[in-house]
Amino acid sequence: MLGFLSRFVDSNDRELHRIQPLVDRTNALESEMEARSEAELRAFVDELRDQIRDAGEPEEPSDDERHHPELERRRELAKARRQREHDRLQAAMDEALPEVFAATREAMRRTLKMRHFETSSSLAASSSTRAGSPRCGPARARRRRRRWLRR
Known about the structure:
This protein is 79% helix and 0% strand. The chain is mostly helical. The protein has one domain (15-150). The radius of gyration is 20 Å and the shape is flat. The two termini are 38 Å apart.
C-alpha cells in the first residue's frame, strides 16, 4: 500500500522540481560566462565573494541585548540577531548560486576542457541548499560534516 502511495509523493521528484529553476538559470548564464576573459571571470567571482562576505557581516548587539536586566530576554534577543544574520547570509548565497555554478562550469571547461553536466549542477545545488531546508537544520548539518571529517 505504501509503495502505491509513494508514486504520488516521491521526495526525489519534489527535490528535482525545486532545483530545476536554479539549473535553468545556470544554463542561461553559460554564454555570458564564455564571453568573459579569464581576468573578467576572476573579477566577477571576487565581486560575488565580496557580496557574500558583506552579507555575512555580523550585526552589532543592540543596547537592549547588552543591558536588559533579564538574562533570558538577552538570550532571546541574541538568538534572534543570529537568526537574522544567518537568514541574510543564506539569502545572499542563494542569490549568487547560479552565477557561482556558471563561473565554476566555465573555469572547469577552460581548465580541463570538459563541461559539467546539468546533473552535476543539480547535485551541487541540492547539497548546498539542503542545510537551509527545514528538514535539515544547522545542528544536523554540523553533525554530518563532523562524520564526514572523521572518515
